[in-house]
Amino acid sequence: MTDARRTELEQLISRVALGDRRAFDALYDATSAKLHAVCLSILRDRPEAEETLQEVYIRVWQGAARYAANGLSPMTWLITIARNRAIDRLRSRSARPATAPEDAAAGIASPDPTPESAAILAQERRMLHECLAQLADAQAGAVRAVYLEGVTYADLAQREGMPINTVRSWLRRSLLRLKDCVSQ
Amino acid sequence: MNSDAPLTPQEEDEALAAELALGLLEGAEAQAAVARLSQDLAFARSVREWQERLAGLADQLTPVMAPARARQAVRERLGHAVAPLTRDPSERTPWWRGPIGALTGLLAAAAVVALLWLPGEQPADVPGYQAELVAQEPALRVAARVEGREMEVALESGAAPTDRDWEIWWIAPDGSAPISIGLVPRGGSLRMTLPEGLDPAPGIRIALSDEPAGGSPTGQATGPVVAVAELTSL
């Protein structure tokens, strides 16, 4: 995402925080197709994804005032809300307790949202795909499935034919390796 | 990193932050991690960094436009718009709903129609395109028109069977995956603002596929393409 686009989205979100409906419409135009894709990727069901997308934008309208303090980039904030809502709905299908941390982390004020740390994170995002390619296929596939399909440890254990604890320790090591790689 | 050695405490924290960001924790462990967010700023920052890092995974998802009714529903749920037939009839009619308003509205509508449709009256800096999607089997005719970033799609004949929908796809000439831009309405026309990244140009093709009611469940066309046409300059 270019800096100009990031700034534009940040300005829209601040106007939304003030109750500006035109800014809200513009934010919807600019971002809803992506967030709808996130909901579809996790839910694989058109009507449910559409319903979830509505909940996402209601939450965006209600939560915009708290956005400025959390230090996330605008697309990350929006994608995280969409992903968490979609996962809540996915897990409510199977009556599993919802485990998405709502937007808890995003609600905590960031102590130091410095431009330098934003630049470092932007760099890390560019490295992400390269670093995923360096993991074994099964590991990279598991990270993608967890993020983009809302797969749980229990699902992974079944998929890989391994006990849950083994799968967990395997995925945790993959995530740590991914972090080491992107933050080099 | 040795794959057998236990994780160091720092690695444990980092892994926990990643799991919280991913929604992988359950029960008491999830509650404890959420509670820790407000007490341990370093942990909260790790979680945010994971959210930022992982959001890059969504880059690979192809945007899929939601049907226009989704936006209308959001507006209604937030009280930004009133659903049809929900106004209290005992309410006093505001002037713009009275006869003078109707006349003003008609004049305004006529002005807009004149601006949009009269030959030679179109603003020169707004590029316009159209595509006519026609098929014999099933017989259908759909008109698409783009003015600037506004797109309008109208069914002229041949609505989809009741349990099916015609889904509209935007296909760029670079071979990238088709992007869903909505469903052909059963009556009237669908108007939308094109999302960022969809730039009208000659060579773009518009296609219709036959999908289950509500559209493709996967975000990619699942049914046969029933019609396809290229955007041509107006």
Structural description of this entry:
The complex is a heterodimer of chains A (184) and B (234). Helix content of chain A is 78%, strand content 0%. By secondary structure, chain A is an all-alpha fold. The radius of gyration of chain A is 17 Å and the shape is globular. Chain A starts with a helix and ends with a helix. Chain A contains 9 helices and no strands. In chain A, helix 8 packs across helix 9. Chain B has 234 residues and is of the alpha+beta class. Chain B folds into 2 domains: 77 residues, no CATH class; 106 residues, Sandwich (Immunoglobulin-like), CATH 2.60.40. In chain B, the strands form 2 sheets. A 5-stranded antiparallel sheet of chain B has the order 6-3-2-1-9, with no helix packed on it. Chain B has a 4-stranded antiparallel sheet with strand order 5-4-7-8, with no helix packed on it. The termini of chain B are far apart. At the A-B interface, helix 2, helix 3, helix 4, helix 5 and helix 6 of A face helix 1, helix 2, helix 3 and helix 4 of B.
Secondary structure elements and their pairing?
The complex is a heterodimer of chains A (184) and B (234).
Chain A: H1 3-17, H2 21-43, H3 46-67, H4 74-93, H5 104-107, H6 115-134, H7 137-149, H8 153-160, H9 164-182
Chain B: H1 9-22, H2 27-37, H3 41-55, H4 68-77, H5 99-117, E1 128-135, E2 140-147, E3 150-157, E4 164-171, E5 179-183, E6 189-193, E7 205-212, E8 225-230, E9 232-233
Antiparallel strand pairs in B: 1-2, 1-9, 2-3, 3-6, 4-5, 4-7, 7-8
Helix pairs in contact in B: 1-3
